[in-house]
């Protein structure tokens, strides 16, 4: 019978679990053939996190890291249950780390109800992570539209397709709506998308993690303790790995 412990289904599941565990054990983190773990002296770090983030981001690009501008975005729903997905970084400056989505998407609804989030960057080619968290606010609509229209035709077409996170009836419906959106995006490169929202996370904490082959990882955390002026307004502390 289906679902009976010890039956065919149970045996198949155990076999898949064994295969997965064996595959996991075969993997290694930071293979020296493809990974260069640079040194990181936190004593030389700048007074504020943004310059160090810009330096590390540029180093990841120079090292050939694939899609270094992608990041994990963690939000929570009205019950406080967490959710996470990969999104694209649109910018990082004195106003915050920015990303975009439809206001009616799942992440958009989460941020309306609980305007606080966390970001995670991972650049394995250098064994580095950056974690950021803080309150999130929406930029003015004009800025969101300007950001969208500065991107590719594909980005505009995806935004025009809309309905993000809604239930999809079929892939045929997606293809039909998407094709129409691509045609409009090509015809109207300034087409407005009222629901498109540019979000900015104002960091309260930023952690920089540098991996070490002997597992003596260096973790430097910045914590905001006032208004940032000329690099001030942040405290720094080391964390055990």
What does this structure look like?
The protein contains six helices and ten strands. Helix 5 (153-161) crosses helix 6 (171-187). Residues 1-5 have low confidence and may be disordered. Strands 1, 2, 3, 4, 5, 6, 7, 8, 9 and 10 form a ten-stranded antiparallel beta sheet that branches. Helices cover 32% and strands 31% of the residues. With 241 residues, it is an alpha+beta fold. The chain has helices spanning 8-26, 49-62, 106-113, 141-149, 153-161, 171-187; strands spanning 70-76, 82-88, 91-93, 96-102, 116-123, 128-138, 196-201, 205-210, 218-229, 232-239.
What is the structure about, briefly put?
Helices cover 32% and strands 31% of the residues.
Shape from CA axes? globular
Helix content: 25-40%
Radius of gyration: 22 Å
How does the helix and strand content classify structurally?
alpha+beta
Strand content: 25-35%
Mean pLDDT: 93
Number of helices: 6
The biggest beta sheet is recorded as: 10 strands, antiparallel
How would you spell out the order of helices and strands? HHEEEEHEEHHHEEEE
Cα distance, first to last residue? 48 Å
| Low-pLDDT segments | 1-5
Count the beta strands.
Answer: 10
Topology:
Blueprint: H1 8-26, H2 49-62, E1 70-76, E2 82-88, E3 91-93, E4 96-102, H3 106-113, E5 116-123, E6 128-138, H4 141-149, H5 153-161, H6 171-187, E7 196-201, E8 205-210, E9 218-229, E10 232-239
Antiparallel strand pairs: 1-2, 1-5, 3-4, 4-7, 5-6, 6-7, 6-8, 8-9, 9-10
